[in-house]
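Section 5.1 Outputs to date
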Amino acid sequence: MSQFWSNIVHDLTPYIPGEQPKTNNLVKLNTNENPYPPSPKAIKAIQGATDEALRLYPDPNSDILKQSITDYYHLENNQVFVGNGSDEVLAHTFQALLKHDKPLLFPDISYSFYPVYCGLYGLDYKTIPLNASFEIGVDDYHQDNGGIIFPNPNAPTGIGLPLESIENLLQQNPSSVVVVDEAYIDFGGTSAVPLINTYPNLLVVQTISKSRSLAGLRVGFAMGHPDLIQGLVRVKDSFNSYPLDRLATLGAAAAMGDKAYFTDICNRVINTRAKLTLQLEALGFEVLPSQANFVFIQHPKHRAENLAQALRDNNIIVRHFKAPRIDNYLRITVGTETECEQLIQALNTIIIKA
């Protein structure tokens, strides 16, 4: 540890992202990237933006992108905030809206960046256990809090919370900001965006990394009451008033506008997930009901850690979490039909040999 670090640095436990291998011969099913390419319209927009105008600073408000989001969700411009990936949007959210005297609440099994942000920004927090079926119990959040945040569908379980449950949560906590992190919502969940105009304490966060196949572009956004959005803007403009570059703004806007392509690739992932689930169950795996672009599985006769290593030996990488309650589960991204067939063939061989 460096003597030159600020005091807070010594106590941080950074988030560890999924492995990004340097070799090209692996079937990569560990970081929930979309297996299909971005919209051709997005690629064209990015290519068209690589001209002499790059000498200029980008639009600090990313108005073209905001307009594409408001058009898609039928919102107003002052109800949308954009940033470098949903992680940056969440970081600003923790600072602007969730730092209060009472603890922030989120599930015990959830996105592992949440406690990292709490440590970075000095937030007190309390984790609320998922039930025995790994579901969020809304009534468990009916207690004093300084805010609530959870992914929907949850990660890494993939289990979604119905809209009526989210509305119940909002009604139970009218004095707290409720953040619904919808990174995977387009693969079968129901978005909470329609509730925004009814509940001024609701903030919905999304990303174009998953369902719009643009993880490499790093664009995320939040939607909510103008007062919430203004809080985010004040933090953003005190940190980086030019969060999105010109290529990201135009590429993301084009992707948001290409509804036909977006619908097609989401449906392809959903259909492959259904087929993959049946194949995994036929091999004896327990597969949690997923509304995301991944499945969360365990086998009653095989340790997840051993299965993950055996798959790697077959040039397939998946995600194994060592956290309590889920240390015998694997999270597997839904790849292409071909990639999923390779996965099933490898697992079949591994299980037979064991």
